[in-house]
Design brief:
TIM Barrel; Enzyme I, Chain A, domain 2; eight-stranded parallel beta barrel; 3 domains; single chain; Glucose Oxidase, domain 1; globular; 552 residues; alpha/beta
Length: 552
Amino acid sequence: MTTPLTGIGVGNGTAAGPVARMAPPPPLPAARTVPPAEADTEAASVREALRHVAAELEERTSAASGDAADVLSAQAMMVADPALADRADALVHEGSDGPRALAGAFGEFRTALEAAGGLFAERVADLDDLRDRSVARFLGLPMPGLPDPGHPYVLVAEDLAPADTALLDPAQVLALVTERGGPTSHTAILARTLGLPAVVGCPHATTLTDGRTVLVDAARGSVEPDPRPETVAEAASREEQRRHRAESVSGPGRTADGHPVKLLVNLGATGELAAAAAADSEGVGLFRTEFLYLDREEAPSEEEQRAAYREVFTAFAGRRVVVRTLDAGADKPLPFAVSGDEPNPALGVRGLRTATRDPELLETQLAAVAAAAEGSGAEVWVMAPMVALPAEAAAFAARVRAHGLPTAGAMVEVPAAALRAERVAEACDFLSIGTNDLAQYTLAADRMLGDLAELLDPWQPALLELVRATARAGERNDRPVGVCGEAAADPLLAPVLVGLGVTSLSAAPNSLPEVRASLAAHTLDQCRRLAELALDAPDAAAARSAVGQAAG
């Protein structure tokens, strides 16, 4: 029997099918020295290759939406950066041939991103993809990209680039398996958005050969090569039962004994609005407003913001919309909001801290939110990211109310805020726990580093302790406490979070049916017992196992 490969599971489904691997990057031809007389012509071909790749990405951006459009747009800007073309041009004039000049220029940019660390380092996969596309264009070779075997398949790759994932057809791709990537990588985000089972950060995945049948189990984070027919049949039966359970419950979230738990959607761009608004939810638990600010040299005007917010509020008339104010910094280095020379951006000026540097940035956004909310019919709440101190929450709440917005909250993403949640809750109207960053800062583990995925697991008992402390503080102060990180999308973890005292869960629209069904299968007392099992476990794996066995 072949030993299964293991990695980081994304989602909860299973799928079996033949492997199809990504087309490999183009090989570099034998090196040659470009004579000075030919350098200008060679350099012109290099620049043409970069322009062509940028144009192709811009074309794909116009056909995409949501997260895919955002990352494609960012890639197009990267390859169109004049500094990149200038550096490749200089390498040609130093004697390098076109392919090596391109590889060298991209390599220098890659080194700079790796040195920046944190979420910047995750972008090196984007640069590698752009390098391969540019070299292929220069050499007149086919672009590396998605396979087309003529039948549904399990896509296996070292990693997936945004340019490829934007074109992925969920009717053909049964599941995703990548050797690299973490729980918040592009592949993981795509898998959740499309509802595809995936295993990322899976060592030796690329040793799987084309046509070989594999069984991908996202809940277990496993990829089983050459599964027995009875194993595939059992997995298919479990998958059918899982889908049936998810479809059997609708309406507001609640436990089996009627304890209400608001189920909300996350929204990151207006391109996602139609699907989010159509979801069976009670509103938006996390409206990320960064999409208006990214890839710009200056902040959007109040009028532009007001129009975008109004569109969202109108679509959710009669429901709640929780707006997160600008979360710049770290992986979103906006030139008009943060300094570009911080040695450790993840621990620098980000989130609410940008308002200290430029108070008008926040004031303009709050004015736009208030104007858009008026008469929209939506119940608009506003919360600040990266709150660390009770005084910060109080000052933010005062600014929100000064704009006529009645409900102000704070995100709990920093251990200090969780440890002082009592005082933070006193200072505002609600709390929202961002488990992705809270895990990163609690376990001292870069959230984009696949090697540390175990530490970033939302089942970590230390993280759950902070969730419980925050929820209890909210309960004592009569403040709702939600979870809007990836933990909220896990149907097995959802009863645990409710048992810890969480009052709402916000996740991708595709995740809500299973979460709703899971809550409906447990009473509040059962949720509390499951929470105690998770807290008493020695580590994340043991917590998940104990709850899984008890939940049946």
